[in-house]
Design brief:
By secondary structure, the chain is mainly beta. The protein folds into two domains: 99 residues, Phage tail proteins - horseshoe like beta roll fold, CATH 2.30.300; 57 residues, no CATH class. The protein is 0% helix and 50% strand. The chain has a seven-stranded antiparallel β-sheet with strand order 2-1-7-14-15-6-3, with no helix packed on it. A hairpin with a 3-residue loop joins strand 1 and strand 2.
């Protein structure tokens, strides 16, 4: 069973059977049109940040009692990232949730690797010159709580909940 973990805000590990996570990129700049009509990005390339919307519905919702907007949280995501390994030594863009990292070749066959203690360093142990090799993992993101809500119909019924966070 997969668990959603949010550290630093009094959120106990939560079973994700009814939980969904949407991760969306937050633009770090503006898009404008040139005089010729071309779309141009005026932001910083490679400085991607993410917004996360977590939602669930359960008879036992997560504990939001100690949660406050503006709190910083470390989120062990349930959504996966994938990155291509172009060399045998890879530094992931975000730390990986422990035990979530795996490597496969272009045919989906497992590839052996060693994971560094920092959660971001990966060494492909049987590197071949026939990439691509893909690394899949659930990222750990440092985020701020933007909002959260609980919706209930009555005693004994399921409670819908939602939390929106943005990477700092």
């Amino acid at each position: 069973m997969t668990h959603l973990t949010i550290q630093g805000v009094g959120f106990p590990p939560y079973a994700t059977q009814t939980c969904t996570q949407l991760l969306e990129a937050v633009p770090q700049g503006d898009f404008v049109r040139s005089l010729k009509g071309d779309l141009v990005f005026l932001g910083h390339q490679g400085a991607d940040k993410y917004r996360s919307t977590l939602e669930g519905c359960d008879t036992t919702p997560p504990a939001f009692g100690a949660l406050a907007c503006g709190q910083i949280a470390t989120v062990h995501c349930i959504q996966r990232f994938f990155e291509e390994a172009t060399t045998p030594h890879v530094r992931l863009t975000r730390p990986a949730v422990p035990t979530s990292l795996y490597a496969v070749d272009a045919l989906g066959q497992p590839v052996s690797f060693e994971e560094g203690e920092d959660g971001q360093s990966v060494i492909i142990t049987h590197w071949t010159q026939d990439p691509p090799i893909f690394l899949g993992y659930c990222p750990i993101l440092r985020m701020v709580v933007l909002s959260f809500s609980l919706t209930s119909k009555g005693e004994g019924s399921s409670t819908r909940w939602q939390m929106i966070l943005e990477e700092v």
